[in-house]
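Ticket #4471: structure output looks truncated?

Reporter: J.K.
Steps to reproduce: submitted the chain below (252 residues) through the standard prediction queue, then opened the result file.
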Amino acid sequence: MPITVYLIVCPLVFVGGLVDAIAGGGGLITLPAYMIAGLPVHNAIATNKLANTMGTSLATARYGMAGYIPWKQVPFCVACAYAGSTLGSWLALQVSDRSFRILMLIVLPLTAAYVLRHKSLSSSRTPFSFGKTTVISIAISLAIGTYDGFYGPGTGTFLILLLTAAARMELTKANGLTKAVNLASNAAALVVFLINGKALIPLGLCAGCFNLAGNYVGSGLFRKNGARFVRPVMILVLVIFFIKVLYELVTS
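Returned output as attached by the reporter:
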């Protein structure tokens, strides 16, 4: 693996880990990083899952120790996220590299637009009962877990947005549950990709260390206003990524 790949991937993965711990959506930076460095789609997704699993593990532990994770809802949501991600990653392996790139030209701008346009994650509406919140959270975990296994970018922010808006959870609990669910979906997808030999382990472990560092810094800076710098970084990376994918499709 050329050293230039590490020089491109690792700094962006650190930024992605930082962003993900604060506001979710770090995958909008980390997955493009691997593809900008020249990795094929399936290898990029698989290696990204390895690094992200390491970083999300640390962030989940820190949120747990801070008391943000609603443990009574975690087992049900985690189980559904794991099942959905396993299905999604299996489906991803059935799609060819070129078809995946074409799909990205459609999905990525839509995902980025949805993630970048939100301004507040707070919910001022009356909370649901524990049972109703749990049922809605389970459905969200299954749906977003499937998306995370298949593609992934924006998963953390989608979870936070839906848990606060649809399940009416308070922001701290939504963020804590998001970490646990995202860890489960990352781990499930990683298992599928490892079995199929798609993850580039040395690169993934090295990037994972940078992701750990980013998540450590980000989870310590968790504030509602802590994501101010996120949008400019995401926009820059997404523009570079979009242009690269489009160029490769046109010239191939």
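Triage note (M.O.): checked the attachment and the full token line is present. The chain has a mean pLDDT of 85.
Status: closed, working as intended.
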